[in-house]
Design goal:
Layout: H1 14-36, H2 47-65, H3 67-72, H4 76-87, H5 103-131, H6 154-178, H7 183-194, H8 212-226, H9 229-236, H10 240-244, H11 247-270, H12 275-290, H13 305-314, H14 330-348, E1 357-358, E2 361-362, H15 365-391, H16 396-408, H17 415-418, H18 429-443, H19 447-450, H20 455-459
Antiparallel strand pairs: 1-2
Helix pairs in contact: 2-4, 2-5, 4-5, 4-18, 5-6, 5-7, 6-7, 6-8, 8-12, 11-12, 15-16, 15-18, 16-18
Length: 460
Amino acid sequence: MLAPLLVAPTLLTGSGADFILSALATAFCGLTLIALSPTKRSFELTRKQGFLITALAWTILPAFGAMPLVGYGLSVTDGYFEAVSAMTTTGSTVMTGLDAAEAPILLWRSLMQGIGGVGVIVLGIIMMPFLRVGGMQLFHTESSDTSEKIVAKAFDLSIWIFGIYIFLTLLCAGIYRLLGMTWFDAIAHAMPTISTGGFSTHDASFGYFDSPAMLWAAAIFMIAGALPFVAFIRAARGKVRAMLTDIQLRGFLSFLLIVTLLVAVTRSVRSDVPFGEALTHAAFNIVSVVTTTGFASEDYQLWGPFAVGVFFILTFVGGCSGSTAGGVKIYRFQILGRIAVAHLSRIVSPNRVSPVLYHERRVEDDVAFSILAFLVVMLFAVIASTFLLSWFGCDLVTALTGSAQAFANVGPGLGDVIGPAGNFSSLPDAAKWVLAFMMILGRLEFFTILVLLTPAYWRS
């Protein structure tokens, strides 16, 4: 929280003073909790404690992150919404006039997304498999020492994650600087790129820079942020082949390639846009939405009804497990496809045994059930959120796409209000609280929060 002071014009006035006061308040609360905690240094984390700690972290930390924003002039609702959006790496914003905003505030927004990105990876690689949420137990052996250990302990795994994350962020910032960004813009955009967060220092997002080379560089680094960090760890430990043969990674890249070519060719054929330009903007914006980053180079709603339909569907897809990306995730679609094929096989040959395999492992019934349950809860949550936003006065397009993007942690929705060229500032406060809750639900994959609402959890 003190890092933004490096770019503050003064320390004792304006946003500089806001950050100092916010840091003192946060430190006081942290030291108070330490003083009140038991003196016992080590303990064994139970699943029950894991659910509670995870849920509290993603609901309380944004309140501290919002302090400098409220001091800057945002309302409590807007400040919390912005902080939740940052730490869940969603990228929806209520702030306008970013080109004239103070540098410490812009840097803080990016820093929160950088911090949130690390937290999301640790959540996806260590906590979610441990909590057995949404089919993530399939990857439990990849983050525990039961079999095929990547590293011996979760602490060591966190060190690997942090090191790779910092390396990618610095590399991204360096490339941005070489391509023409100022150092401030390069650093402030590198963190949202790798974290697939999508906050920018300019209202026009990447459209401000008007550089095709920058768009391609950003697309590559957004993809890097959406890949399984377990694969990066394997590559760093010399197992490059294991990374290249990863089913999820290959499926993800193949999907991006097919959709990008489809949209680029369609736009080029139906308009006067040259194919090279259409390909550049299609690649950037499709990668941005699929990886749930939320940057924009153009208002892709102007590309025609086909493109709008494609981008709405892409909102739900998401990146890979154990990455910074949100959404349903590629591995769930791959497993659902295998389940469908196995079911068809059983219909044709009832006596035939057709096990569902993924990564050469058998997909157990509890994994398949968890994935189906996740999708059902997601559907009902999006419907309920759409209903509430409509109740609070939002039009149907804003309500539906706003709910969908909040669940998937994408950032922009569709329509004139919250589309790629808009923001969330004009929404009613009640709608912002609903969307903030949806961002947290989506980031924690629903059940981490919903399990706390069951009486059985508190009785156990």
